[in-house]
Amino acid sequence: MKIRRKETDTKVDMQMSAMIDIVFQLLIFFLLTLKIVPPEGDFNINMPLGAVSQQADDTPPPLDLKVRLEANEDGTLSQLWFGGRSLGNDFPFCFERLNAEIGQIAGGQQGFSDDLEVELNPDYNLHYRYIVKAISACRGRMQGDQQITYIEKIKFAPINQPQ
After folding, report:
1. Strand, helix or coil at 18?
2. Rounded Cα distance, 86 and 72, in Å
3. C-beta neighbour count of 55 within 10 angstroms
4. Which among 153, 130, 150, 131 is positioned nearest to 142, based on CA atoms?
5. CATH entry 3.90.550.10 includes domain 62-156
6. What is the pLDDT of residue 37?
7. Among 6-10, 11-15, 28-32, whose mean pLDDT is lowest?
8. Residue 63 pLDDT greater than 80, yes or no
């Protein structure tokens, strides 16, 4: 007995050119509607730039808030300077004195001043923990559960590598 196939079992052809056209249209649609999200985590730390910027003559010059961190041969803190004045090297108390000095300049209990900027100038071989302590001391202090911000703008002076 011969089995006949039904005529409904025909092979289905897919139109690939139409499918490729739809895929490209979707791709173009999503590329054109993409919104780029700005990066998170703005720390407001200004790194040194290649050239010195020119200031307008009518603006008063900013206060000279420079913190110098000198290192011993082994990378420990040798001396902490603020504005040309020595604050000692008795870690962590020298950073508490730095925080108090910055607090007096920034306005004491009032806190944050947006026009002040601190420049950190650490030695090349200084341990990183001292630099972080200096940033924390310049930034502000904690009062209970609340942080009081003194200065938000912190920049680094160019670090010279020893010869």
Report:
1. helix
2. 16
3. 10
4. 150
5. no
6. 74
7. 6-10
8. no
- pTM over 0.70, yes/no: no
Q: What is the pLDDT of residue 8?
A: 63
Ramachandran assignment for 6, one of left (phi > 0), alpha (psi -120 to 50 degrees), beta (any other): beta
Domain parsing of the chain, residue ranges: 62-156
Q: Which residues contact 69 (CB under 8 A, 6 or more apart)?
A: 77, 79, 80, 81, 120, 121, 122, 123, 126, 130, 131, 134
The full length of the chain comes to: 163
Q: Which residues pair with 118 in a beta bridge?
A: 65, 154
pLDDT attached to residue 28: 95
Q: Residue 104, by phi and psi: left (phi above 0), alpha (psi -120 to 50) or beta?
A: alpha
**Distance, C-alpha 150 to centroid of its chain:** 17
Tens-digit pLDDT profile for residues 102-160: 888 877 545 455 678 888 999 888 888 999 999 888 888 888 888 888 888 888 888 77
Any idea what DSSP says for residue 127?
A: -
- The answer to whether the CB of 117 falls within 8 A of the CB of 151 is yes
